[in-house]
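Hi all, a correction to my earlier message: I attached the wrong file for Bifunctional diguanylate cyclase/phosphodiesterase. Here's the right sequence:
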Amino acid sequence: LRTEASLHDALKNNEFLLYFQPKLDLQTGKITACEALIRWHKDGRLISPISFIPVAEETGIIIPIGRWVIEQSCRVLRDWQKKYNFAIPIAINVASQQFADASLVSDIKQMALRYQIQPELLEIEITETSLMNDIELAINKLEQLKSAGFGIAVDDFGTGYSSLSYLRHLPITTMKIDRCFVSDLPGDSAIASTILMLGKQLNLTIVAEGIENEMQLDWLKRNQCQIGQGFYFSQPLPQAEFEALYIANQ
Ligand code: G
Ligand code: G
Ligand code: MN
Ligand code: NA
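and the right structure:
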């Protein structure tokens, strides 16, 4: 039933919601940011994006769904500012097709303006594979986003086929070590070490994804990985639960 028509209805009936997974400073244990992850609330059940994002990408409805994610994130940022006076960045996932869409940059700028959001509070996560699809396009789009002040992270780093020479020219701020390399820690650390070294050389913030246990955390701390997220700290949470966790963590 995850058809284009049902996804249209879901948008119209406001059935999507965002969950938030905290990102922590690994040295201090403080929550410094979060990642927004979409869920579909249908007939009393939560449907995972794994089962509808691929259909959304195939049919093109990922564009309006992606716009909803951008707008909802801006709304939440504004609420956090108003209700609690807290200002932590939200990272959103941008699909390949959405990244290639001609109106992406203006959509993001307009939403930030409409909701009076500082661009630094919105970070765009793009997979390494999307970036490498069309390097010229990627450089151009990222330049526009970066000069407007938005954060830019390469998601799932290490799983695609980055040309390292191009990576140097991409105006990114953050690299996320894919969780498959984190799950290899501490035993098999070759890839994680290499990504951390590369990040240091390129002056990027490194985020480790999918931290599930203390041994992985210890290795990452010892090896100067700054930021991490994963089930060891917290699953993605509904907004109110994320807010409570954030407040308790301060
Ligand atoms: O949250 P979860 O682990 O179930 O997410 C599964 C996959 O769906 C991940 O690859 C994640 O990046 C992707 N995903 C989650 N939310 C969004 C979203 O808002 N937009 C896009 N394009 N992908 C998302
Ligand atoms: O593709 P992306 O990196 O955006 O995927 C994020 C997905 O990873 C979300 O669906 C989230 O639920 C999942 N995730 C977050 N932390 C962990 C973790 O520690 N272990 C596993 N297996 N998945 C995680
Ligand atoms: Mn992501
Ligand atoms: Na990822």
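Sorry for the mix-up. The domain at 19-36+62-249 is CATH 3.20.20.450 (TIM Barrel).
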